[in-house]
Amino acid sequence: MSSPALQPILESFDQVAPFSTEFGTPDSEAVPIILENVTQQELKYKLLMAKGFVQGALRDHSQGNSSRYNELIGELLLKPNLPNAPSTVQLYVWMETLADCVSQLGLSCYELVVAVLRVDWSVRSVKFVNAYIRFMKNVVSAHTFYVVPILDVIAEGFRYRPQLPPYNTTTRSVAYARYHDALQDILTLVPIAACSLYVAIQRHMPFRQRSTADQVAYTKNILDVMDYVPTLRRQIIPLLVDHLIKIDGHIQIELDDVEEDVEFDTYNMNFDDDYQSVNSDSESDNSDDDISNDGSEVDSDFEDKEDADKHQTKHELKSMVRRLDSLMQIVFTHFSQSIRDDKRQQHQSFADANTNTSPSAGPSATSFQTEMYHILLDSFDRTVLRTLQSRYTQFLLFYICSLDTSYADGFAAHLFKHITDPLRPNVTRIAASSYIASYVARAKFMKPETIQRIVGNLSEWCISLLDKYEAETPLTRTGSNNKTTPSTEKHEVFYASIQAIMYIFCFRWRDLALEEQEDDYEDDLVMEGISDHHQNTTNATATSATTSINGKWCPGLRHVSRILTSRLHPLKVCSKPVVDQFLKVARQTSFMYLYTHVETLKGLSLSGVHVDVVSQHGARNLFYTLQTFFPFDPYNLEGSKKYIDDIYFEWIPLDDQEESDDDSEEDGSDSEDDEVDDMSAGAAAMSISPSPNHFL
What we know:
By secondary structure, the protein is mainly α. It has helices at residues 7-14, 40-62, 67-77, 88-99, 110-117, 126-142, 147-157, 172-189, 193-203, 212-228, 233-255, 296-299, 305-355, 368-382, 395-401, 405-420, 426-442, 448-472, 492-512, 560-564, 570-573, 576-588, 595-600, 622-626, 656-659, 667-678, 683-686; strands at 513-514, 547-548, 551-553.
């Protein structure tokens, strides 16, 4: 029940002949009534009444009598579903009146402004929306301290609304566009508000458990914010990367507990449809969460709790994968569209420059894709490289690297610097080795000369470490078998680097074979910016190039034989699937034959090899933990994989003639071939990151 002071105002709102309810008269179709149905004379009367009430309420409030002031706040805070809630016409009159009184809405009227900001405005009529935005613009112009609560309301508006209210007159997409319009107007008036905007965006970022629709809607909206607030790109992109990492890593943890296949689906990306949960059994289920929390439905379908838990885990996993796939797709889509728009704008700038002598005409100094490359590279160092359970997030950088040769080469050089930097922790250097191996192996856009340079630099790096080891470590003997026993923990980076070479060779051996005219170009083997590594190693048995099935191998491979047969015994320490596949490919391509050498290592025991133990210093064998981590294993998110398929190098087996070797191999090679045959063939054999095969 309204107070006596406010009652005459409310009664005046009801004295409108054309309609009795907000959704039309009994004689009309069920079409939402817009404010234009109210005559100008009627509006003037209502505005005059409201102005008198508001002015009096604010005056009394400033003098210590807040009764009418509190009545106005109570009116604005009434829930829309209550029978006495204000209609759109009533709210419009209040907005217009308050917009003209903003000079009086100082800090003492903070509660009133907050009440206005809690009004549901974005789905109402156009005229009301314009009045509401005018109020926000006026109030921030008069009092900048209201910027923070207003930005908070706008950021919250970027979230997905599971159900639209009865007074809705539009779609979710239009409502989102209205929030963006309001935000741009406010940023035009108060440019420094961009700093507070990021805080609001960060605060309202959905938790990873929230629905796919909520996640995707919010992500798309904050990506759209970057289009007109480019200064926030360096904050929003890392925020999204961190968010994706949380979901991505959680999926990998859950997958380790699932022993059977899980079917995944995709989200249709239509924000104007009512969202259906992946657990929904009926169209009426519009739950805001993908995941059922009570578990009662699951428990009723299973005889024991263990089966129920497994079933619930599969449902949760299905939701999380759907969520990650949708988020990756929306980010890829934004990147693709923004890059096209940026190039179109630059082309237009070039065209304008031909007809305009103004020095301002011309392309932008930094393109969108270049900025994204540097931002993602920073995020990679800060978050991704340190997250060993990330499975898909790193493909954002993979995609950007495919757009320009300088990005592709730059990322490889960046990883190499990580590997060779003694000031970085070993876990970072080993992870970088896994990344460079998987990246070079899988990047279809990588040019052969670049692959050869990378392999050459890794080889030179390994030789420098080997020379240092042999110079500092005297040859020791154990028993009568003349086998050395180095400590593998001290040489983890070395093993990770040579494993990277073997892994790359298995995938890209065709790019490491030279054409005849390419025989003499050894100077090209040093990657730009990292040419200060050991170059003058002596190897009496190494030649500048060895013969391949297609001709000669690039000079970068000349040290591989010495490294693999060295006293550090990398063939004994590195990942067995990688070693086995390398031995097979190396033999079939006539690169080298090492099965006899492998036979001599069978009786050798090295400390820390293939044992997940904690050392006396409390540190795990890092290389053992990471030796089967290849972060660019096949991309299997159905909705977003279309952005990766064309730039991704799939495993190509040797042709049938090469695959069928003679049976007259050494005894040792027979056993090794048997072990290789036992592994999954082709791509599966080289997609060996420790996660379930049904997902990877």
